[in-house]
Amino acid sequence: MNYTRSFKYTLLLVGLCSPWLNSVANTGRVSLKKAMLAKSITVNAVSLGGYLGTKNLKLTLTNNTDKELNVDIEPGLIFKPDDTAYQDLVVLGDEHIALAPAAHQDISLQAFCGKSYARGPLRGMNFTFRKQGDSNMVKTLAYIKANNVPPQLAQYAVWTFTNAHCLNTVYDYQQVKTSEGLIRYIATLRKLPVPEFYTQYKLDSTENRPVIAAGKEKVYVTMHWGNTGYKHMYLTVFKADGSRYKEVEADQVIDKDGYTVVVQFDPKVDPPGNYTVQLHDEYNVVWSQKVVNVGTRACDLM
């Protein structure tokens, strides 16, 4: 009798659990890239206009299978427009969406421009999947998302992978610490030297216009120091021949760790060439110095 009751109880449990077991069996977890290549998912991509990490790319995903699919949208997926005079769009990623069997669903994604020389995409433009960026680009996008890196700064980082921009262009003078942290991260990934000076491009977010405003870039160098015990520290800029070029005000406190001064050079005003920015105290003891080049790409000097 006990065996009979036990057998009936087992049958009851199986009956109750079978819908759940069937659900698990019929549900698959898949990356969007693999699903597209396997044609288990069809993707229709349309620009929502804009760039710089806004939700500017709408994907309509269609599940071509008879199973529910849990789709992981990876970082670094690159979509190209039908008209290649416009920007590619690089997906920030780390998004997830569930697709019922044979169903379709829309999702709007954050994306960055992938061609710095091209035009900003127009709303309603059609895009198709091109490829995924390399592993370092994928890791960098994951870092950007995890650390809430501002969109403009993240855009500069993307171009170092898609357009071979110099590492020193990953810089926003209003986000000094975040910029330098991101640069160090990419430099470590790619085994590159950390630059001593930076170039910041001015961006144009207007649709149908080149994304970089040509000729409006600025060159920066940041000088850091802690509590030196001296009342005054000074910054002096020297030309390549050693002559004094200008003095810089150097008493700007930004946080508990000490002092940071950002020195700006304008290629339209400052003649091209090398400059040395020197930090010294009131007794003319040099604490540190950096060489800055105006008029040449940093990575062309290596």
Structure overview:
The chain has two domains: 28-200, no CATH class; 218-301, Immunoglobulin-like (Sandwich). A hairpin with a 4-residue loop joins β16 (273-281) and β17. The N and C termini lie far apart (86 Å). The longest helix is centred in the first third of the chain and has 24 residues, at 2-25. The chain has five helices and 17 strands. It is an alpha+beta fold and 302 residues long. The strands form four sheets. A six-stranded antiparallel β-barrel has the order 2-3-8-6-5-9.
* Rg (C-alpha, Å): 27 Å
Shape by Cα distribution:
elongated
Low-confidence stretches: 1-26
Order the strands across the largest sheet as they lie in space.
2-3-8-6-5-9
Query: What level of helicity do the residues show?
Result: 10-25%
Report the β-strand fraction as a percent range: 35-45%
Q: Briefly, what is this?
A:
With 302 residues, the chain is α+β, with helices and mostly antiparallel strands.
Question: What are the salient characteristics of this protein?
Answer:
17 strands; four-stranded antiparallel sheet; 2 domains; 36% strand; 302 residues; six-stranded antiparallel barrel; elongated; alpha+beta; Immunoglobulin-like
